[in-house]
Design brief:
Strands 2-1-4-3-6-5 form a 6-stranded mixed β-sheet. A 3-stranded mixed β-sheet has the order 7-9-8, covered by helices on one side. It contains 11 helices and 9 strands. The chain is an alpha/beta fold. Helices cover about 40% and strands about 15% of the residues. The radius of gyration is 19 Å and the shape is globular. The protein folds into 2 domains: about 100 residues, 3-Layer(aba) Sandwich (Rossmann fold); about 130 residues, Four Helix Bundle (Hemerythrin (Met), subunit A). The protein starts with a helix and ends with a helix. A hairpin with a 7-residue loop joins β1 and β2.
């Protein structure tokens, strides 16, 4: 705890203190990993140290942000300590390698990220679904766009490039201070069956209430995984609605 506080507040000693840090990672299991050990086993075409913020290891291990990293065996630091959000605001790099949050809109990923994803949603239906998502979520998001990295998850929320206050909002939440849910970009996976089903529902116009509830649930579920949802209990009525709809069609 005190080492992390020193990294965040003592610029003169930051480089030396950073060598003492230890983290769990997507590969480490029960082991604690230093930043030096992480850098040593970085892939040849990897230029950044990747990390993910969350409330606990079990939650962030299920994060849609990790789809690409699991698929390509890229290691990610798990930052779950309340001080970690405060620390990474100050710690920009280690041994010349920048630290990069996996929810960044412009991730510096190896070239394999350009591999095409097979779409299950026609262009017209995709445009209609995007318009519906924007209408339902309004100013909670800044943009809706197709994901180039998702494979197993239907969507994710990424931080706009200019979102400098992203990590500080998490710090405020952890300190019990008033905070704002950061406005994010929603990326959707056109190769996921759930998005194909939502696009079909939007195209048919059969059940707008179910469609809107599903979109809202996807958004709030993403916030929940990231530890940014203020009151998860508010999801209960919507989840019941979705369960009733699923059982009617079972």
């Amino acid at each position: 705890m005190f080492v992390k506080e020193g990294v965040a507040t003592d610029v003169a000693q930051q480089a030396d203190l950073a060598k003492l840090l230890r983290f769990k990672t997507s590969r480490s299991g029960a082991e604690w990993v230093s930043l030096s050990a992480y850098v040593e086993r970085m892939q040849a075409d990897q230029s950044a140290i990747y990390y993910i913020l969350g409330d606990d290891v079990l939650s962030i291990a299920r994060s849609p942000h990790l789809d690409y990293f699991r698929k390509h065996d890229l290691e990610v630091l798990y930052l779950t300590d309340p001080l970690d959000s405060f620390m990474v605001v100050a710690l920009k790099d280690f041994n010349g390698k920048p630290l990069q949050n996996v929810d960044d809109a412009q991730l510096d990923l190896p070239s394999a990220a350009d591999q095409p994803i097979e779409s299950k949603v026609a262009d017209d239906d995709y445009a209609q679904l995007v318009a519906r998502i924007k209408n339902v979520l309004g100013d909670k998001i800044t943009e809706v766009r197709e994901s180039k990295v998702l494979s197993d998850s239907p969507c994710r929320l990424v931080s706009p490039e200019e979102a400098a206050e992203r990590d500080m909002q998490r710090v405020k939440r952890l300190l019990g201070q008033d905070y704002e849910i950061p406005k994010k970009i929603m990326e959707i996976n056109r190769g996921h069956q759930l998005m194909a089903d939502l696009a079909a529902l939007a195209h048919s116009g059969r059940n707008d209430a179910l469609l809107d509830a599903s979109i809202q649930q996807l958004y709030e579920s993403a916030l929940l995984v990231e530890g940014l949802l203020p009151n998860p209990a508010e999801m209960a009525p919507r989840i019941q609605l979705l369960m009733e709809a699923a059982l009617r069609n079972a």
